[in-house]
Every structure is written in structure tokens, then in C-alpha cells.
Amino acid sequence: MRVKGVNLGNWLVLEKWMSPALFEGTTAEDEYYLPRQLSREVYEARISIHRSEYITERDFVTIKAMGMEAVRIPVPYFIFGDREPFIGCVKELDKAFNWAEKYGLQILIDLHTAPLGQNGFDNGGICGVCKWSKYPEEVEFVLSVLERLAKRYGERAGLWGIEVLNEPITENAWKLMDVPNRYPAADKELAEGSGPNTLEFLREFYCRAYDRIRRFMPEDKYVVIHDGFELLAWKDFMQEEKYVNVVLDTHQYLMMAEASGCEQTLEGYQNYIKEHYEKDIEEMQKYFPVICGEWCLFNSLACGCDTKGGQSVLNGVEGSLTEQLDAGEKRKIYRTVAKAQLDAWNKGCGYFYWSYKLLTDTVNDKGWIGWDSWDLGRCVDFGWFPAENSGK
Predict the structure, then answer these.
(1) Taking the CB of the first residue and of the last residue of the chain, which one, N or C, has fewer CB atoms within 10 A?
(2) What is the C-alpha to C-alpha distance for residues 341 and 21, in angstroms, rounded to an integer?
(3) What are 222's strand-pairing partners?
(4) Is 153 a residue whose pLDDT tops 80?
(5) 8-state DSSP, 278
(6) pTM confidence score
(7) What angle do CA 180, 119, 352 make, to 5 degrees?
């Protein structure tokens, strides 16, 4: 197997920095507080307009034309509309399957959030809260969502697989990201007791999830597990015969490499990618098919300033106010890091770029220079993303 795809980030799971207008008139930093700060009518109108306009049939045509073969679609735990005050989005996923099958794309359904948070990130649905794994009834709820997704889509021709849970954080990443300070909780009381998930918990959860999904999803479709930011920790896991077509997903961002001390130079990035990404993926490929389910071209060098591990103006870190590099220099940086990363993913079984599009105004809103590299459409159009990988 080999897969080449892109994430439909910020469509069914919101991220404020990717679509700031949705959060206008509120102090909400995440999807949990948005419906709690808007009237029901305003919330429903905003969400339904956003979902109908952000991704449409035309986007599936464009993604196919880019040379991509698959999309990873982040979905929330309330996809089936059974968790107030959120609005379900299963109709949108139904549409996506029809579009994907029409235009010859595959879908990886990615359960991106869990009640009470599995990582404390804004993209986990609630900032600074991470205690889902401590509540057995919420763990069971997530398993039931996975089972229902498998039941509904398991036999669909367009299904590539189901990812059990996005980025459940473990101890080292919790410390590296300094989650409580980087993503301050709006409600300190609610955040009390938050902390990383243990690898023991994740192992048990993944085994249970596998069993629940496989009841309804044929063995030729993939069950995807995230490495919890510990790529090398899974060598002795799910090696028994009963586990078929399990894929290990690792997320590798240069901003996290920078936070780990990677030098912010072209040579620094290339060396880091070779010594860490390539080596580790090659090692783990002996045990699982490995994909890089999230990555992008974003890096501090191209931004013209140290972004402190990818912290944005939302995190109070000042970005560059004027372009520090000309178009040629930028193109060279992006093409170089693109090639190095694509070489690394080729040691495994492929990738999904994060993300397909971005609604942040990187021109008029100050401090966002360099953030356009999160938008695959722009990367392809600007020639930053190598043509042989995008089909253009």
C-alpha cells in the first residue's frame, strides 16, 4: 500500500486560527465554547453555512486534479448529533463519500476529538482540558462512535480506513508542548485533573477499538492508530495474527522539530528530517505500514522569524510584520523541505498533507507571514510543492 492525500482540516472540526471569522463576536478559542457563547440560531446558521461552503463537490475535483488519491476527514465525537449543544455532521460525511466515489478518491475517517479532550489542544475541541481517558463512560462513548462509523461506512467503496483517535497526547509531548500554558483552559475547574494519556491506556483502547470497528469493516480496509507522539513505542504492539491491516500514523511538523531544538536553517531541517523522520519511519516500517497523517511545509526560516515552535499571533507570539525573503528564496526553502519530507514519507507508506485550505487572511492580518504554507492549494499554485507529487 501507498497513499498520497490531504486533510480536510477545519471543515467538520473547527480550528479558530484556520477560520477566524466563525468565532467573531465571541471570546471562544475552541469549538466547545462557540455554541455556549452564541445564541442557538446564530450558532446553527454559522455552522451550516460554513459546512456547506468550506468544502464542496468542486474541491474533490480540485484535489483529484492535484494528483491526490485520498482525503483524511477529521470528524468530531458529536458527528451523530447526540451531544448537546453541538450539531451533528453525518450528512456532510455522507456527501463526501458520494463525491469521493464519483471522482475516484478514498476517505480516511479520522475521529479528531473526544469528550473532555484527549490532548488539550484547540484542535482537540477544548483548550487545556485533557482527561477523557479517566472517564470510562466517555471512553465507551468514543468506542460507540467508532462502531457506528464502521457500521455506516465500512462497506463503502470510497472508504480507505478509520483512524481510531487523533493525537492522544502522552507524557513527553505534553511537556514539550507545555499544553496548560500554550492552550490555557477557559474554565480552570473543568481543566482540573488534566494530564497526558498513558501508553498503557492507549494500547488497551486501541485493541478494544480494533475489535469494535472490525465487526463492521472488512479486513481489506485499514484501522489506523496514532503513535501518541512516540513513534518508536509500538514495536511489540498488535503483532498477533488477528490484527490485520493496522496502520501506524505519525504526525511530524517542523515546528515541533524546532521546539525539540532543530536548527532553523535549511541544512538544519534537512539533517533533522534525515536523522529523525527517515530513520524512525524506516525502523517502524518493519512492524507496521507507517503513514505521516499530518505534516506541512511551515517553518520559521520561511516566516523570517522564530515562531517559537509554531505559536501564532493567537498565542501572543509576534509574527513577522513584513516579508523577510523574496519569492525566489521562499520557493527554494519550501521546495527543499518538501523534497526532504517527501523522501522521508516514502520510507513509509505515504502521507496526508495538513491542510487542503486555510481561511486566515495572511496578507491583511498582521503577523501571519509564512502561514500560507499550511494551505496545500497555495503551495501547489506557488510551485512550493513539487509538481511530480501534486500532478500539476
Answers:
(1) N
(2) 32
(3) 161
(4) yes
(5) I
(6) 0.97
(7) 130
